[in-house]
Amino acid sequence: MTNAREDRPAGRGGVTITDVANAAGVSASTVSYVITGKRTISAATRRRVEECMRTLGYRRRAGSAAPTGTRIGVLAVVAPLHRARHVGLEMEFFSAAAGAARERGFDLLLVTEDDGLSGLLRVTSAALADAVIVLGAGDDDPRVPVLLASGRPAVLVGVPGRGHGLGGVPLDFGPAGEECATHLADLGHRSVGHLGPSPTPHDRSLSGFTEHFAAIAARRGVRVVSHRCHSSAESVTRGLDELFAVGEPTALVVHDEPALPLVMAALRRRGLRVPGDVSVVALCSATVAGQQAVRPTAVVVPARQLGALAVESAVRQLDGAPAAEAEPLTPRLTVGESTAVAP
Q1: Does pTM top 0.85 for this prediction?
Q2: CA–CA separation, 221 and 187 (whole Å)
Q3: Residue range 164-222, pLDDT digits in tens
Q4: In order of start, what are the domains of the chain with their CATH numbers?
């Protein structure tokens, strides 16, 4: 049986777990599981509970947060480190975030579990940080209700949200996808290989690019063959074997930062010149783009800007500003030396 005094948060209206459960048409235990992540709940039920939490203003009881007016001086950054790490993006983001935090008197606490949930629960339940910044959290992400229930300022980075009541610094890659397809079509390419990353939990930070790229490519009569691969030399080689066997592409879109140098090396081993034989478009950080022997035509992810804006959003909330999602950043295509007229 739920203890009302333990359940009653400090937020508006004294909303309880029972109130959320009644509004969502589920049991109080289901709401608890959504918050804690201890059991798997269907996406539809989780979204319904999450929306009721946001609408009713549910926040965990006051004892779960630091006393009003006090600060620990720590911002937690939840960034699960998967096997295929985007080292350039991570380095730029954390460097900018650390600098912005330091200017405001804060340190960063990095939370790196693969699922990102258990570490987040520890941070919020033990009051280890004043605010939480989460990279690549989507609408169905189990971390969102944990953040809602924690009562702490939070910022979702990279994926546009849908009014969760949390702060956000979103990216919109749709225009970049359209620009890439238009650029290659204008150069006469009619067969394009798309090398994408293997799916990882919750990470939809580049969402929108593929859909918009495919739509414009189809409109311009460009055939696109996609292949997902791990960021290893063997996986990239297999991916290129498949793409060249099926589509004979005259251009490649490398939609995975760690794979870019591997792709360029594999093309050299095949005796293919970039861009004389094959054009290459990359989605990557400025750091990785600058490391290539051929300056790539690329959509450069503004990781440094994201890091600084995420910290700014978190601190603004700590200073009393309402949680809000900023206008999306829209990375654009920069034409380099890796694309040319189709052979």
Answers
A1: no
A2: 13
A3: 678 889 888 899 999 999 999 999 999 999 998 765 544 555 568 888 999 999 999 99
A4: 4-56 (1.10.260.40), 72-171+303-318 (3.40.50.2300), 174-301 (3.40.50.2300)
